[in-house]
């Protein structure tokens, strides 16, 4: 028990310190003081190598700053809130390609002109997350109205009519849905429903629908999670059907930051739910690998892209898909889970007599 | 001189034999006897791992078969011609998304239904190459009419009005043209104008325009060829402006089949033009690396994707971008250039007296 407490305590401190340096990195290098919003194409030392503003990452950074401001006393600082608000205003002004239409761009110029549009729902999802968090932090209803209206538009595109996304209808395109869609929607249901009974109730049926759709992607007797399945829940032929674990992956033999940070969260959550020490052991293993390979001791933050052997393949700290999101989110979530676990173990036992602290005083 | 002749002769035989096994691989594994056209998603041993038919590769394989049939006595076989014609018919029936509109799909199902459309000109370019070669081989004017009509459509999209390609007009998209466009058009000018005075004359101004546009991409005092430049021929900021050598690349540190096969052609051409032995030496170096790393001695053809250290990263023989094109085209072109070089050296000197063939008899 005491050994476990000690391990949890050590990780909590390590994770917390890492969160501090990661947040400091983004505060220092990513803010566009001129136009609002964030630079995310940052080199190893934080230097901006491209001024493009990717909408996913604008929304995610607003969300992250609000969340840190709201849930961590040490981040309850005007610096974070002001930057989140400036990011929110940038999105409100520029994210939509042709307002009042709700379709958002995928990437904007530094001053907010659309460069590319993806025919998917994801820019709009991160827009919604940002607006909902801004509302939670500021209480300004205009943010929440934006969030709920965009959410309703997304649900319409997914469940009623996708025409507005702009994808052509082609006779050879198989009727299929990537798991990313219900997964993303479910996380929005959770986001909007957090401490909000009216929205929890409004989106309850949608949440069930998402969970049902997600579970259909568990195939091959529970041994594989396939990204694309047929409309009646069967495995599809060809590469489309075999596709697993999509996202910001590049090559199959690379090691990327976000599956590692997600794995840290997942194993710590699983340990918290079950108490199985084998799961804590795996968290430990993944976290040790991650801290020793992805973390950059010289300039802070994490490298995103390693090769299979763990060598840095791209030394950028941010790009079109890596921004102020997966890493601080992982560290913040792990810090919270670790704190709750330590709390659950009860107060530290009082040592009854002075003893050699290296050998341990409580046995 | 004799040493050079010997080296050229050795390479000519090696390249010719390799061409035979490569062509045999595609003849054996890629033909769809049921629907016409070609499977290009082939595993290491030639097994089809996906039935999707990528239009670029359909057109390229038709072109390749016709060219081999037309220019190499040993490939002047009904098997190649019949497969090329079946591929041509498949394209005629299915490549266009909404006939009589000329926009072609990027990828089709096995039976020819469109799966995806790229908002570029490249499917149409390879369609044109295929039709022109089919005309050259069969003399059937319907093929040539298709080629010329499609060519005129492509030129219209590039030089007059791109609306038909379907790309949205976005205010933040910089006015730029990838070098791939004039490069591809110039190769069509060459293809259509080959032994055709009327078309040579028709496309002469276009050829000049392409060459002028291509040369604008040579930047930084001739030290870099940049893929994207501004409309007035200047380097663009950001990643877009720094982009070089696009194509079927995946990661910057990988070694791919096609830059190696293109380099073999380029250095042999350059040696043929200048006679500089240093260029033959580089051809030798690139070709040795390529034959020892990309070539698969067990199942034939070449691996497409190596990592930086030369280890096979993906052992497929074909996919969305690798088909019956770069490798046989390289080998066929190298064989032709080597033959011309050997021919230029004149007849082999007659050895005046019997001598030890290992020590050489002519000194």
TrEMBL record, chains A, B:
Keyword set includes Endoplasmic reticulum: no
Pathway involvement of the protein, from the record: Amino-sugar metabolism; N-acetylneuraminate degradation
The enzyme's E.C. designation: 5.1.3.8
Domain of life: Eukaryota
Catalysed transformations (reactions): an N-acyl-D-glucosamine = an N-acyl-D-mannosamine
Class of enzymatic activity (EC top level): isomerase
Assembly notes: Homodimer. Forms a heterodimer with renin and inhibits its activity.
Name of the protein described by the UniProt record: N-acylglucosamine 2-epimerase
Protein source organism: Microtus ochrogaster
Phylogenetic placement of the source organism: Eukaryota, Metazoa, Chordata, Craniata, Vertebrata
